[in-house]
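From the shared-data thread, chain only:
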Amino acid sequence: MKDIKQNIFIYRIAQFASWIVATFIFRRKIIRNEIKNKRGPFVVIANHQAALDFVNLIGITKTPMTFVISNSFYNSLPIKNIISKIGVIPKQQFQTTVKDMKKMKSVVDSGNPIVIYPAGLMCEDGLSTPIPEATYKFLKWLDADVYVARTYGTYFSMPKWSKGLRAGKTELDVYKLFSKDDLETLDVPQIKKSLQDAILFDAYREQEKRLFKYSKADNIEGLQHVLYMCPHCKQEFVIDVKEKNTLFCKKCGYEQNSDRFGFMHKTSEIGDELRYVSDWSRLIYNDLKAEMINGEVTEISSRAKIRMIDYTKDKFTDVGEAEVKLQKSGFTINGVIKGESRELTIPITNFASLPFSPGKYFEIQYGADIYRCVLNDGSLVMKFINMVKIFYELNQNKTALLDKQK
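Structure, as tokens:
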């Protein structure tokens, strides 16, 4: 396997630029840093709250680290050639090929550290994305010391549903989770429990303990695309924003506003207060899961513009239109793509989620191709994503049950 090449000069420039953002935007405080002077091969497993989580991490050790990043993010960057010189491994989120695994293994085998975000996706509601089951066996296979890089607060500095950065305090805690010898003796369930305990999070409950302040924290424009169902009347796609800080239901009048810490407060006479966005989001998820288990909801579909990466321009460009449907068996994309009528069937068994932008699009990888589906009705994006997560959860539960019965 060909070594990942790093230009140390460019890497140091990236470290300095990241230090500026980490210091003045994220206002990072380091709780522990057990890799500061670490040499040789090791693996850093990091939680993922915001798109720029890496800026808090890249500068905390003198030893250059190789970061595993999103394939679509990498290939749609105009500065892709510069990023490649820092030393990265682009891969599609929630889908890891044998080739990708060998690349990551080669970094460790060559005596160098690697950074992995196993959840694969920054959160939209303050809750962790599930960790793919293959991660735990993969860690044993890498055969190196494993450290956790636990970030607190970056979700509020850069919510997935908002625009721009919101300056405010964040914390970073980096410590050893497993030694190489530990991984030889621990079984997969033990590794799974320890890793989940270390990096799964609810950003709102963590914020309750810290009460960090963030600029424009009460501006919740865009959150209506995530919290699309009213918790009182249970109607979908009736939530809107007014005065930048208030979510309200256009159907029944239920209303909550946000404070400077990001917490919600009921301002209507009806309904129950949901202080945490994560609780509101989980309510939507659980209601939908119950409907899917009961057979009341079995599929969802929408017309969409289809975009794919133009590698000559390093950006997504329109390639056609299609009907996009999600069922238990997977996605179907049926339409005209690149001037040809096509019907694609894409299984989703191993998709814990999908890359997406609330209210806009989601992305599906099929082989080497990435299809960005820009829905005609953007309000459906979050429901598509919730259904993907639910199908994954139900499949994992079924697999676990079968394993117990063996």
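The first strand starts at residue 28 and ends at 33.
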